[in-house]
Write a sequence for this structure.
């Protein structure tokens, strides 16, 4: 079996040695280079063309964020960021790195990594290496903010049996940048609250909600166990905390410690299925970019319950895994690129509220 070629980037010799030992002992990786700063990382990527990069953020000369931007612009390569999650500043820089194109972020251990961390880290690097990275994500979304000629084609909005009361969104790989774009592009008068599941960890969930709130100007909060389901009328966001499933039951949000689904907790399927049971057709389900199949079955449950379902088109997905599975299962009523998505969701929300109860 061909080994995955990995480039290790960290200014700490100790950390580089620890990671190199992990990769070597695993047997499925080949360490093809080490870099002590972001400039070296950029140069090594050009020269050795690794399958995946592990990237420290805080380094001299050129930091990990800027290096990620350069690599994604000039030699796109899957990048896994290692970050000290307890630092608020570094947490925000981690979110910026994800928006710039990094595939994943892992909490950096303060000492020798234990067996659990090592297993999780190696698996996430292995998964990241499978991502086909072809463009600078930040540049792509910036282009999508500019006028497009011809304008995006938005599917005709049908008249539905029930006016929606809630928008639920799920995403994984590439999700932070996609959700940030979506929140920034929805109009000020968008009338529905949003429940959000991103495959993030409890180490980074606070940084994620703060980052999304700062970039969008909207109220973005981690969901609180037992809080009332937000009422329709304005856009606010409640995100599932890391390592907790979020469900809707009895008009409230509940956080649960149930088993992982598709190796995920929080799980998009868990949220979507609860919304199908609780709200029936009075919801819109939206599945964005992500690896794997979490959310596809739940979106199908929502569609069978009468809800409106939307998935992101392959043309704008970082990873067309979760949306592809939803399409395969017949769960998707609408398939649109990220550019057209805010227009479609706004039309659905407003048209249904005006016509759907007729």
């Amino acid at each position: 079996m061909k080994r995955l070629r990995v480039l290790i980037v960290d200014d700490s010799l100790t950390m580089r040695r620890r990671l190199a030992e992990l990769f070597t002992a695993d047997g499925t990786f080949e360490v093809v280079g080490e870099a002590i700063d972001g400039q070296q990382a950029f140069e090594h990527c050009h020269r050795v063309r690794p399958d995946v990069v592990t990237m420290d953020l805080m380094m001299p000369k050129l930091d990990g964020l800027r290096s990620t931007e350069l690599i994604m612009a000039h030699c796109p390569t899957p990048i896994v960021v290692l970050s000290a999650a307890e630092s608020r500043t570094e947490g925000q820089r981690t979110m910026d790195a994800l928006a710039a194109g990094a595939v994943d972020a892992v909490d950096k251990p303060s000492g020798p990594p234990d067996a659990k961390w090592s297993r999780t880290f190696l698996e996430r690097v292995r998964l990241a290496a499978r991502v086909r990275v072809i463009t600078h994500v930040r540049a792509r979304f910036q282009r999508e903010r500019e006028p497009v000629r011809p304008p995006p084609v938005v599917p005709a909005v049908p008249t539905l049996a029930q006016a929606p009361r809630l928008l639920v969104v799920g995403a994984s790989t590439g999700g932070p940048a996609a959700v940030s774009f979506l929140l920034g592009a929805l109009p000020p008068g968008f009338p529905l609250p949003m429940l959000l599941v991103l495959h993030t960890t409890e180490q980074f969930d606070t940084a994620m909600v703060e980052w999304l709130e700062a970039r969008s100007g909207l109220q973005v909060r981690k969901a609180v166990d037992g809080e009332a389901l937000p009422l329709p009328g304005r856009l606010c966001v409640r995100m599932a905390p890391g390592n907790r499933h979020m469900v809707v039951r009895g008009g409230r949000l509940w956080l649960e410690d149930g088993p992982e689904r598709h190796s995920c907790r929080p799980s998009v399927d868990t949220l979507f299925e609860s919304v199908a049971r609780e709200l029936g057709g009075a919801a819109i389900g939206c599945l964005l970019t992500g690896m794997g199949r979490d959310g596809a079955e739940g979106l199908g449950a929502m569609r069978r319950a009468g809800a409106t379902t939307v998935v992101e088109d392959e043309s704008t997905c970082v990873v067309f895994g979760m949306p592809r599975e939803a399409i395969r299962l017949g769960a998707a009523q609408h398939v649109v690129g990220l550019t057209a998505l805010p227009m479609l969701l706004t039309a659905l929300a407003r048209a249904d509220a005006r016509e759907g109860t007729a």
In short: The CA atoms of residues 27 and 266 lie 30 Å apart.
